[in-house]
Amino acid sequence: MNLRFLTLAAGAALALAGCSTANNSVASTGSPRPATNDAVPYASTYKPYSGTATALVGATVFDGEGREIDNGTVLFADGKLVAIGGPELAIPAGYTRIDGTGKFVTPGVIDIHSHLGDYASPAVAANSDGNEATSPTTPEVWAEHSVWPQDPGFSRALVNGGVTSLQILPGSANLMGGRSVTLKNVPSRTVQGMKFPGAPYGLKMACGENPKRVYGSRNQMPSTRMGNFAVDRENWLKAQEYAKGDHSTRDLGLETLEGVLEGKILVHNHCYRADEMALVLDMAKEFGYKVTAFHHAVESYKIADLLRENDVCSAVWADWYGFKMESYDAIPENAALIANAGACVIIHSDDENGIQRLNQASAKAQAAGARMGINIPDAQVISWFTYNPAKAMGIADQTGSLKQGKMADIVLWNGDPLSVYSRPEKVWIDGALMYDAMDPKRRPVSDFELGQPGEGDVK
Amino acid sequence: MSFRKLLVTALIASAAPLLSTLPANAQDMVITNAKLVIGDGSDPIENGTVIVRNGTVVAAGTGIAAPAGIPAMDAQGRWVTPGIVASLTDLGILDVSGVSDSNDSSAGGAAFSAALDVAPAVNAKSENIAVSRAGGVTRATVTPFASRSIFAGQGALIDLGADPDALMKPRASQYVELGEDGARLAGGSRTAAYAQLHYALAQASQPDGPTGAIEGGDVQVSQFDIAALAPVVSGEQTLYVHVERAADIRSALLLKREFPKLRLVLVGASEGWMVARDIAAAGVPVITMALNDLPARFEQLAATQSNVGRMVDAGVKVAIGQFSDMNQPRWAPEEAGNLVALNKMPGASGLSWNEAFAAISSVPADIAGMGGKMGVLKPGAVGDVVVWDGDPLEVGTVPVKVFIDGVDQPLESHQSKLRDRYRSLERSDLPPAYNW
Fold this sequence. Notes:
The complex is a heterodimer of chains A (459) and B (436).
Chain A: H1 3-11, E1 54-62, E2 68-77, E3 80-85, E4 96-99, E5 104-107, E6 109-114, H2 153-159, E7 163-168, E8 176-179, E9 181-184, E10 202-206, H3 209-216, H4 225-244, H5 252-261, E11 266-270, H6 274-287, E12 291-295, H7 304-309, E13 313-316, H8 334-340, E14 344-347, H9 358-371, H10 378-383, H11 387-392, E15 410-413, E16 424-429, E17 432-436
Parallel strand pairs in A: 1-4, 1-5, 6-7, 10-11, 11-12, 12-13, 13-14
Antiparallel strand pairs in A: 1-2, 2-3, 5-15, 7-9, 8-10, 15-16, 16-17
Chain B: H1 3-13, E1 29-36, E2 45-53, E3 56-61, E4 72-74, E5 79-82, E6 84-89, H2 127-134, E7 137-142, E8 151-159, E9 167-177, H3 180-186, H4 190-205, H5 223-227, H6 230-233, E10 238-243, H7 246-253, H8 255-258, E11 263-268, H9 276-282, E12 286-288, H10 307-313, E13 318-320, H11 332-341, H12 353-358, H13 362-367, E14 385-388, E15 399-404, E16 407-408, H14 414-421
């Protein structure tokens, strides 16, 4: 299932020629800074598609921020949410009514941890673009430069998963893997056409087994967990020096790290074990940066108090377990225990199949909690795959919940989204209907699939 | 709060007094007042009863008198089913897949391939078995991964009981790769894979045993390996053939013309729906991952979640399986449930609830050559009975009781003990390490 994990394990055995072992400094290009600080390279060219003013009525509405409305009304027009309320909410003239009786409405699903486009289908070597595994620190690489917009995985995430926004991260071979990119899940000829306007960048970091295995197997630093930390710390020192400098010579990697120190770039840290997360939090204090979220944090339940105190989210699977040493203590109650301690829970996929069922994974995690007496309301569980990831990706002011003025990123489910028996029926992104189960043509078919077996099929 | 949630909560609240009369290790038992699933595709039976004696089902249905003098359980209307049968797993042959020292699922440096036999390697105390048992899985086929040739080796049938003896049937199967994996393992092409398969099976068919071996290229298959294929040719062992694309499926089906006794089972078959009538006409069953819907490889371009439903509609016997690596056996019920969800989707082909449950119970049992003996609650079948805390195909539903051969099974694991240890993070008199 998890081809990316397998690929990485296999890749670790390959000896890559030409990689630097002498030091771990980040790459330097020596090119001058852009003329103005306002210039945004590779800027988003995304423009919402057009939609019609719509009133969703009669459905159970979860707003993504903990509110549940029975027989709710959701109004949206011109790409924005206009109003959310009960049956009493007046529907302005000109709105198309959609009867949602017996159905459910949530904000668009958001996956904080995806490699779509970077590890695209088909998963052939030519499409394997997620790990720049030639140096343990590559903060200079940007995931968006690897994204293949024609990855058929984007369409599956949309139609089966209701995913409207997602963060594409570099892989975890490197301690500092590079910049992430946040996308709207709208088919485009270019990655710029998918980039979420105004979303902050993230820095993918990784602790634990992967970096030390990949580089240790080449007899290169790091080969141990203490090596992991030493290399990280050396690079943060360089970043602090760079930040004090005059920037007369640009350094792409240090620009990224400086952005983290300034709080403009959010740290997304792959980290499984509780003890390592605690060490990373101290490293962040040592150098004055913040960890926004630990990803794959299967042991967060052991330090949920610490995570709450440090205001760090845990992005987790529901019940992946035991596939590598650092996942051996994963338990299905992890998410519920984190939530019960008052810390932030995000359900993530890290998988082109799992991204199609983040709602189901959340329901599983909820049920595991209920069995140990932790009862988390449905409306809060919905936030695990909507509002909470939006917050941790720095886009919660624009999407992630059904609030007036936000982007009309909406899923109409044909039943309770926390049930195995429910699927998205309609998905709107910025108010544009991008998927309709009732209309065979209202689903994207990527260039890759065009004219090939299975083109346009239900998937 | 949703209806689904209320139901679960109510069931949990009433769970405590359930089984106080059932002594451990009884191989006799009766469960009454069950929403009883036979597992053969028939409708659930309200107010059903199942009786197990000496570890074997003696009666299941409605209107059956509960015998006196054996441990009895009132299921209070809960769902009661046969144990899940997980097809093509790595249960018991690895502890942690990423820790090679603990992983016996493949042998990339070995001199042998087809002769490899998982039976002596199966560890009944594997944590993966305990975790799967707690998920309602009671029987499994275990098969190795191919790494030295197109032949992966011989698989076994196991039970997941908490006793030292897991093996039900050793050397039950052989597994061969004939798609993209087969091409790679054979030396670079499907053509090589077919040449090697034909050569090996022809050699194995010789009445006095093989006289040759595959050698000289990058891939070797020894005479000892070829000898291990004799029970494949004679039909004593099931032959699992992994193929995905429609053309490969058609080619694989032709093997039965040349070797008519082959007990062929197609594995994968992502594009099976495109040739479903051919598969049905050949009478060859399929074991597949239910939810593959991506062109993960060129051989899976037409993958769709409707694959299972379309094949079943065409008359193919299909089990949901391939529970190895990252696809855990305890996810079988929710994968089946996802196929039920397709019934509401225009243009999609799903399974009815009854078909979906059969696809993880009686159908995989049939394919493993154990039809009527497991995966069903019928007289003569093993006494594997699971009592669930809700609809077994719904996400989040888990067993409250698992019986294997009529024996009440422990559901504790490394995971459940970690949960209990870290239930509270309050500092106490001693560190958490003393809480066990």
